[in-house]
TrEMBL record:
<keyword id="KW-0677">Repeat</keyword>
<dbReference type="InterPro" id="IPR001611">
    <property type="entry name" value="Leu-rich_rpt"/>
</dbReference>
<dbReference type="GO" id="GO:0005737">
    <property type="term" value="C:cytoplasm"/>
</dbReference>
<dbReference type="InterPro" id="IPR032675">
    <property type="entry name" value="LRR_dom_sf"/>
</dbReference>
<protein>
    <submittedName>
        <fullName>Uncharacterized protein</fullName>
    </submittedName>
</protein>
<keyword id="KW-0433">Leucine-rich repeat</keyword>
<dbReference type="InterPro" id="IPR050216">
    <property type="entry name" value="LRR_domain-containing"/>
</dbReference>
Length: 316
């Protein structure tokens, strides 16, 4: 059963036509570092342990099943248990103004109550999570930047948003850009198959392929985006790598230009590979590495400020 998967840390079930989660899932949920169940067919009420299930296709759901369940909590509840501590009505108004601007400027939302736009989560009259995926949006209002940094999650994928974007976005990915005209990638982004990717992120993947024979096929380097197909978990957001998990994959080298993108990546894990010292300085925790085939180190092989001991570099 799923409750026996006690070592599971990453679980991506996005877009798999899932209609139900087993009760045993709650036994492992709190141990997961990453979980995505969005873009499926799950009806309310969902499992109480799962705080946010993202966008779901509810066309086949029975509304009465949710309404009659006294234990279910509506994820649009703005203030829970009438707790008025730390309430700021100015912030609430800013959140509401964004939702109204979305309704006013997107034909697909015309006539909709702002509090019914997408999938919303509120806490003490503050919008904390907003999923606007798959709503046929063509416009993002500038005032979304007034609340963007305060959101835990924000998803506008699978829409039709064209530039210019609000000031807080370099690029908005995963859009149907058929009506956007010619290539519109911003500076420092490159167009690959109709999507814009940040050049430093592509350069890092290119270096990773070049320096690791395990990622090369017939002597030729794998295309950077093809790594995604074989990876445990590599996820992009708005043209940048958001999640990079490439464990136990036989990697022997981590290129220095990882430091150009490392702080853009929310989840980074290359443990259980064969990466030798010295490691790029920006990578704070490279995890366990099998170093049996690594060359012997002396102090000159370690980065400045580090010394060699037992064939590893340690900060002095």
């Amino acid at each position: 059963s799923i409750s026996s998967l006690i070592e599971l840390r990453y679980l991506n079930l996005n877009n798999n036509l899932i209609s139900d989660l087993p009760e045993g899932f709650c036994d492992i949920y709190s141990d997961l570092d990453y979980f995505d169940i969005s873009n499926n067919l799950i009806c309310q009420p969902s499992l109480e342990c799962v705080e946010f299930i993202g966008y779901q296709n509810t066309d086949e759901c029975d509304p009465a099943a949710f309404i009659d369940n006294e234990s279910a909590v509506d994820n649009r509840d703005i203030m829970i248990n009438n707790n008025i501590e730390n309430i700021n009505f100015e912030y609430f108004q800013a959140d509401l103004d964004v939702l109204r601007a979305l309704v006013d400027n997107n034909e697909s939302l015309k006539g909709l109550d702002p509090l019914h736009v997408g999938v919303q989560q509120w806490n003490n009259m503050r919008l904390t999570d907003l999923d606007l995926s798959g709503l046929e949006l063509t416009y993002l209002p500038q005032n979304v930047c007034d609340i963007y940094s305060g959101l835990n999650t924000f998803d506008v994928s699978d829409n039709k948003i064209c530039p210019p974007y609000p000031r807080c976005f370099e690029y908005v990915g995963s859009q149907d850009t058929g009506s956007c005209g010619r290539s519109f990638c911003p500076d420092n982004y490159t167009d690959i198959d109709g999507e814009c990717y940040q050049e430093n992120h592509i350069a890092f993947l290119q270096s990773l392929v070049k320096n690791n024979t395990v990622l090369q096929q017939d002597g030729a380097g794998t295309s950077p985006l093809d790594i995604v197909q074989d990876a445990d978990l590599i996820k992009w957001k708005n043209g940048k790598i958001e999640t990079f998990v490439l464990t136990a994959s036989g990697l022997t080298n981590l290129p220095e230009n990882i430091c150009n993108v490392y702080y853009d990546i929310g989840l980074f894990d290359v443990s259980n590979n064969e990466i030798c010292q010295p490691h790029p300085l920006c990578v704070e925790n490279i995890g366990y590495q099998n170093t049996e085939d690594c060359p012997a180190l002396d102090d000159t092989a370690c980065l400045e400020g580090y010394v060699s001991f037992d064939n590893k570099c340690y900060y002095n």
